[in-house]
Specification:
By secondary structure, the chain is an alpha+beta fold. The protein has a single domain (5-182), classed as Nucleoside Triphosphate Pyrophosphohydrolase (Alpha-Beta Complex), CATH 3.90.79. It has 3 helices and 14 strands. It has helices at residues 5-11, 66-78, 147-155, and strands at 13-14, 19-25, 31-37, 45-46, 53-54, 56-58, 81-82, 87-98, 104-114, 117-118, 127-134, 159-167, 172-173, 178-182. The strands form 4 sheets. Strands 2, 6, 8, 9, 12, 13 and 14 form a 7-stranded mixed sheet that branches. Strands 5-3-11 form a 3-stranded antiparallel sheet, with no helix packed on it. It has a two-stranded parallel sheet with strand order 1-4. Strand 12 and strand 13 (172-173) form a beta hairpin.
């Protein structure tokens, strides 16, 4: 008997980033660009959010700020350059992830919205099937299960802190999402 998808997923080592950043690129028509995160190249490691729609981003290098990391990721993953002044921090999300072995790791996720860039946004080896969505048409059922709890507020222009509680490779919510709205956010 072959293992099912859930059993195979539980055998993979799960990536644990203490900090990460994601940017949602918004065009002049108010549409947001989302793409599917490719399943990891290392068959023994599962990437956070793999197989689901998301903005683009990832971890930062030691000597770069979160904005610099987002700019680098945009260039590496899609080949376009974000204008630094158009990148705005809109949320800090504390992702409390229960791993398959029962341990918990927390990833502090910096969420940005960017409105200006140079170049053409195209697919990459990390993100595929990119598409533009109006905020009311975002397919939250194809994203990490808790994104629907806080991301609509970000797309409405709000700034916030959120605490999300997940397991089963971010496919299952274990507690209700907590949100605190704020006027301003900052990061390094």
């Amino acid at each position: 008997m072959y293992p099912n998808k859930k059993e195979v997923s539980s055998l993979k080592k799960q990536k644990s980033l203490p900090e990460a950043g994601v940017v949602f690129v918004k065009d002049e028509n108010g549409r947001y660009f989302l793409a599917e995160k490719v399943i990891g190249r290392d068959e023994n490691e599962e990437k956070i959010g793999e197989g689901r729609l998301n903005g683009l981003g990832g971890g930062r290098n030691l000597k770069e700020t979160q904005k610099e990391a987002i700019i680098r990721e945009a260039l590496e993953e899609y080949g376009f350059i974000l204008h630094k002044k158009s990148i705005h921090l809109k949320a800090i999300v504390f992702c409390c992830n229960e791993k398959n072995d029962g341990s918990v790791f927390i990833c502090k996720l910096y969420v940005f919205v960017a409105t200006k860039w140079k170049g053409i946004i195209s697919a990459s080896d990390e993100m595929i099937n990119g598409e533009w969505f109006l905020k009311e048409d975002v397919p939250y059922d194809q994203m990490i299960v808790t994104d629907k709890d806080w991301l609509p507020f970000v797309f409405d222009g709000e700034s916030l802190y959120a605490w999300v509680f997940l397991r089963n490779s971010q496919r299952e919510k274990t507690r209700e999402t907590q949100i605190k709205f704020v006027k301003n956010l900052s990061c390094t």
